[in-house]
Amino acid sequence: MKLIKLLANLGYGSRKEVQAMIRSGRVTDAEGNVIGEGAPVTHEEIRFRGEPIDPPAPLTILLNKPDGFTCSSEDPGETIYDLLPERFAYRKPGLNSIGRLDKDTTGLLLMTDDGKLLHRIIHPKHGCLKAYHAILDRPLEGHEAERFGSGALQLQGDNKPLLPAPMEMLGEKEALVTLHEGRYHQVRRMFAAVGNHVVALKRLSIGGFQLPADLEEGDWRVLTPEELVQVLG
């Protein structure tokens, strides 16, 4: 791919803007030598204002989503895209969240520009499990795990029962819930169906990949190939 098109697709500017950046000497190699528009150079060698350029597509990133951020750029208020470099909004193909977390739900969120990967992770037939830590308003009564795991629990407004969702009691008002699917506000609606209310909800894992303990809320990084294997199980 030509240098101008590459940088434009990565969101560094329009083709006209990128061309001007190249001509002004802001695009160099690792040694600081200015790169011309037609110079043969590998992606790894390119520097923009002295910094390595972003990875090309396909790209998957992991984000530790904080409370109060929505997952759509069309929603009002702060969105997950506000946590990323501004240029990421102009990448082609664009980054989309792999499933959504509610505005008030925190934790592990993956974003990708790979449509096939997105579908593979979110579609129930592929069995990619998602685990959530729920803090509840009232003490658990002891029957919830059986109800959630039965495969017979049907939420109000749905036309078919939920797939079995294993639940582990972590404390009087805490539980770990594992989902095979991702229906709208599913964990919150499940606890509402058994007479409780979720006070706080955090996604801990997708597939076999756990939210890294060293990734602070609001921070993100590129998912490694080894981590992607863990996600896909």
Helical coverage, percent range:
10-25%
- Unreliably modeled segments: none
CA gyration radius, whole angstroms: 21 Å
Write down the CATH class of the largest domain: Alpha Beta
CATH 2nd-level architecture of the largest domain: 2-Layer Sandwich
User: Sheet bearing the most strands, described?
Assistant: 9 strands, mixed
Structural class: alpha+beta
Kindly state the mean pLDDT as a whole number?
95
CATH topology of the largest domain: Alpha-Beta Plaits
Q: Which shape, going by the Cα principal axes? A: elongated
| Element pattern in H and E | HHEEEEEEHEHEEHEEEH
First-residue to last-residue Cα separation: 33 Å
How many distinct folded domains? 3
Task: Using brief descriptors, characterize the structure shown.
233 residues, alpha+beta, Structural Genomics Hypothetical 15.5 Kd Protein In mrcA-pckA Intergenic Region, Chain A, Alpha-Beta Plaits, 3 domains, nine-stranded mixed sheet, three-stranded antiparallel sheet, 20% helix, elongated
Explain what you see.
With 233 residues, the chain is an alpha+beta fold. It folds into 3 domains: 3-52, Roll (Structural Genomics Hypothetical 15.5 Kd Protein In mrcA-pckA Intergenic Region, Chain A), CATH 3.10.290; 60-123 and 208-232, 2-Layer Sandwich (Alpha-Beta Plaits), CATH 3.30.70.580; 129-206, Alpha-Beta Plaits (2-Layer Sandwich). Helix content is 20%, strand content 23%. It has helices at 3-9, 15-23, 115-122, 144-149, 186-193, 225-232; strands at 27-28, 47-48, 51-52, 60-65, 96-97, 105-112, 130-136, 167-171, 174-179, 198-206, 209-210, 220-222. Strands 4, 5, 6, 7, 8, 9, 10, 11 and 12 form a 9-stranded mixed sheet that branches. Strands 1-2-3 form a 3-stranded antiparallel sheet. Helix 1 (3-9) packs across helix 2.
